[in-house]
């Protein structure tokens, strides 16, 4: 009885082993047959990977070169001369008047904010990339725009190139360059995108309200010492002048579009002077109107809020409340467009304003004065 049971167990184990061997063999044949039908193509992966990495490196090197070239054109501006001591102070931007600017010609014209360099005919101190400091003279300024042009006695300087601020789009990559605290962090570069266009900012100062219109909004970091420095696109072209940061929020800074100031810069560079024409009105975009009068409503044009009593528009028939829709043959919907156009004119030039008053439209000729 014992021998029969042992023989049966051995036989069962043999049968199980043979069955497993047959199953493994069948599975192996199936797998081989399946993979033999798959077509395998040979690629030079190393070559492809190398080409991709090379193009990536070249692009980044190009970006770096562009930024380095622009930073060489950025200057530091101070109202008080720095004698070599540290200016790493909590209130250095206000006590020393520290800010930034950009060289716009090889013979020493510099574009910046008016609040950085001071009023026209005043002096400031300009530090260029090689560490040399010059005394600069403010040769032009506009308090409404917070822009100014400074002249230093120098030649052979590298200078920025201008882009077209009218063609920029939301989401475009941009860089802000400037001196956020002082000389220790001069020519700092921050990166961001165009976050908004045609922004209006209300400014309260000395219990008075003013408005900066048609600004470029960016999330590139802009600090007080960055004022007057360039906002550039990916090609290294200046599209704006860094001006304002909202202190109550992160990642909200503003720049003045470069197109508005181009005619002024071009006149100084070409003629070493600029004879500024004067219209003698102050007007607002429709974006400002809700701050002034919520009952006003118009689709295009700019609202005349003030007429200078001694200006060329005083006795030509214009009234406060008129809407300017065209200047000569150019339609306008922003105050910056009006300023930019007037900057291309000379005193004693005649322009035609098309205005809307109620349901009627008028054309009024104005002989420009001298500012």
Q: Which key terms come to mind for this protein?
A:
371 residues; alpha+beta; Thrombin, subunit H; Pdz3 Domain; 2 domains; six-stranded antiparallel β-barrel; elongated; disordered N terminus
Q: Could you describe the 3D structure shown?
A:
The protein has 371 residues and is α+β, with helices and mostly antiparallel strands. Mean pLDDT is 81; it is low at 1-5, 35-59 and 83-95. It contains seven helices and 21 strands. It folds into two domains: 69-270, Thrombin, subunit H (Beta Barrel), CATH 2.40.10; 275-370, Pdz3 Domain (Roll), CATH 2.30.42.10. It has helices spanning 2-36, 45-71, 92-95, 114-117, 262-271, 289-292, 335-343; strands at residues 74-78, 99-103, 109-112, 123-127, 133-142, 147-151, 161-162, 173-178, 188-205, 208-218, 230-232, 237-245, 253-257, 277-278, 281-284, 302-307, 323-327, 330-331, 350-357, 360-367, 369-370. It has a six-stranded antiparallel beta barrel. A six-stranded antiparallel beta barrel has the order 8-9-10-13-12-11.
């Amino acid at each position: 009885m014992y021998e029969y049971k042992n023989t049966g167990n051995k036989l069962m184990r043999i049968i199980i082993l043979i069955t497993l061997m047959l199953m493994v063999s069948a599975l192996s044949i199936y797998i081989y047959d399946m993979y033999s039908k798959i077509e395998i193509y040979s690629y030079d992966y190393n070559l492809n990977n190398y080409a991709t990495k090379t193009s990536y490196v070249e692009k980044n090197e190009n970006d770096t070169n562009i930024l380095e070239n622009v930073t060489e054109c950025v200057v530091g501006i101070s109202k008080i001369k720095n004698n070599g001591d540290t200016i790493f102070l909590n209130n250095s931007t206000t006590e020393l008047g520290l800010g930034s600017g950009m060289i716009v010609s090889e013979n020493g014209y510099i574009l910046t904010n008016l609040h950085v360099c001071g009023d026209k005919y005043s002096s400031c101190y300009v530090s260029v990339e090689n560490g040399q400091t010059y005394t600069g003279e403010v040769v032009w300024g506009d308090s409404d725009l917070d822009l100014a042009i400074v002249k230093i006695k120098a030649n052979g300087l590298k200078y920025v190139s201008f882009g077209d601020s009218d063609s920029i789009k939301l989401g475009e990559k941009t860089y802000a360059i400037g001196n956020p605290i002082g000389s220790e962090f001069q020519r700092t570069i921050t990166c961001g995108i165009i976050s908004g266009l045609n922004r209006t900012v209300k400014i309260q100062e000395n219990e008075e309200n003013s408005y900066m219109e048609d600004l470029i909004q960016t999330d590139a970091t802009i600090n007080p010492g960055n004022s007057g420095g360039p906002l550039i696109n990916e090609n290294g072209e200046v599209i704006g002048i860094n001006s304002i940061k909202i202190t109550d929020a992160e990642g909200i800074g503003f720049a003045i579009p470069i197109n508005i100031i181009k005619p002024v810069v071009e006149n100084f560079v070409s003629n070493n002077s600029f004879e500024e024409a004067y219209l003698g009105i102050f007007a607002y975009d429709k974006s400002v109107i809700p701050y002034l009068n919520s009952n006003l409503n118009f689709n295009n044009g700019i609202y005349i809020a003030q007429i200078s009593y001694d200006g060329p528009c005083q006795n030509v028939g214009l009234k406060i409340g008129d809407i300017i829709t065209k200047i000569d043959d150019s339609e306008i919907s922003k105050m910056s467009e009006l300023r930019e156009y007037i900057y291309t004119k000379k005193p004693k030039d005649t322009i035609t304003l098309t205005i809307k008053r109620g349901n009627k439209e008028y054309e009024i000729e104005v002989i420009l004065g001298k500012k």
